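To the structural biology subgroup,

Please find below the input and predicted structure for histidine kinase, which we are adding to the shared reference set this quarter. The sequence is reproduced verbatim from the submission form. If anyone notices a discrepancy with their own records, reply to this email rather than editing the shared folder directly, so we keep one authoritative version.
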Amino acid sequence: MIPDSKASKQPRFIPFGYKLMITYMVFIIIPVIAIGYFSHSMYEDSIRVQTRNNIQGTLLQMKDNIEYKLSDVERISNMLYEDYSLITQLRIYEKGWDTYERTTKIVRPKFSIAVNATSLNIAMYIFLANESFPEIYHGKFLQERPDLLERNYNLYHLSRIEDKAWHRNFPAEQFGETMTWQRVERDEDFGRISLLRRLVDSQNPLDLNEIGFMRFSVRIDELFQGLDYSKIGEGSALVIKDEYGKILYQSGVLPEGEAHGEAEASSHLYLKIQESVGQSWAMTAYVPMTVMEQDSAKVRMFILLICMLCLIVFTFAGMFISRYFSIRMNKIVYVLNAFREGELHKRMGYRGKDEFGQIAAALNEMGRDIDHLIDQVYLTQIEKKEAELESLQAQINPHFLYNTLSSISRLAQFGEIEKLQRMVLDLAKFYRLSLNEGRTVIPIRSELEQVQAYMNIQTTKFGDAVSIFYDIDPSIIKYDTIKLILQPFIENALEHAWFGNSIHITVSGKLHGEDIIFKIIDDGTGMSPDKLKQIFDPVEGLNTGYGIRNVNSRIQLHYGSKYGVSIGSRPGIGTTVQIVIPAWREK
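Predicted structure (tokenized):
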């Protein structure tokens, strides 16, 4: 007797060989993991310190780059501030040709030399208290365009800025030291910032007299060009703020908490490093902790790889040792598993006179006995299955013949001899194809001819009220099928699915992978879910869906339970019958 699927399931257990391997590996892996953990902890702290120092060094390099550019602008201002000959010329108030000559030959050349003495694109504005010098400028004073004035200068009278807040509030002069960086006039509109500084008459050091004012406007992105967040890690952010906390320049995206003024919101996710820049600015770096952990992750990965390597080596060693001790047991398990899978021809080739030798001999003998018994039971089941198939096949033809003879009787009753003659000829053709020399399996071509003969009978009976459309893939014609699997569903639609004065039926056949799918679709009354359930799960005393179950049973008896009939239907819309059979040819 062959055990069923439930009885064949064996309880899960750890094989004998694995038990040996696990025991061996536990005493190896635990020390390896412990060593890896403590090694990682020791390295992690040192690597964090080293990573922080590396980032700090990068920030110092950025700071030096920015301060070099700031000092370069300050150097230009010093060229004018400390030029005693220029100061001497600026405090002379003579007019006429002498002033023109001093302007063109002394003053303007000095300004031109200064504004071009650097690689930065500076727009220079000079405001002189001595109004004997003429104003020389490009564009308009109120609507200035510093981007168009780069590497050039405008010369104005000091009176133009006396009422400006940035000039009025400028700090008291300390010789050689008083200067500030501010955004004035239209600097912010053009993304610029200006170095502001007085021109003073230092003839009397105790009483420094303002004789002019200098403004050097520089593009912020040029000034802070070296400020790049990618140099300290992806996801970082760099920002320069002035003495009032206003952002002058930003590289990268600020943490959400910092962007909204919530300094503590991101303190556990970002490392904040700050450096002073220039006289009063602050450069702040926001470095994600993930960047700090990158080097630590490398060490962690290295230790993990070492542990994995040890694990692989020890696993193979454990497998070899366990296989060495469990090879005899594995031979027995292999043959038993083969028997469970139905491979009863497997035998144990074991030599020896110990207990394992006796087990091998008993298993080989048992396999031969079970194989012989299964052959006998299998032949009996095949004979029973063929008998059931023939019985089901014999039930369908009388059912169709009964319906057709009833139609012929009605035609004879109404005296329609011509239609009656066509129906009788089509009926004869149908049964000639159906009998097919007693074969159960026929070509799909013959099955479709049977459907055509049947529909000729129905169109003779109903005329234009019945129409059928065929959508058949030519590639399925070469395969076989058991007979009479399509006609019963067409007959069922004509008997029960009429909705109005006409009905339309579509018969399709397609190749889908290794299966053939037939569909019979009608636009009839459809069926309710309860009626569909009764077809495949009939209630005692009701004979609903006998023909459908007949076809489904014949298909499953011949091809197996994975094939058969399925139905989809909605009341008032119609019904779709799907029939699935394998794409094969009978030998």
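Summary notes: Confidence is low (pLDDT under 50) at residues 1-11. Residues 464 and 502 are 8 Å apart (CA to CA).

Regards,
Lab coordination
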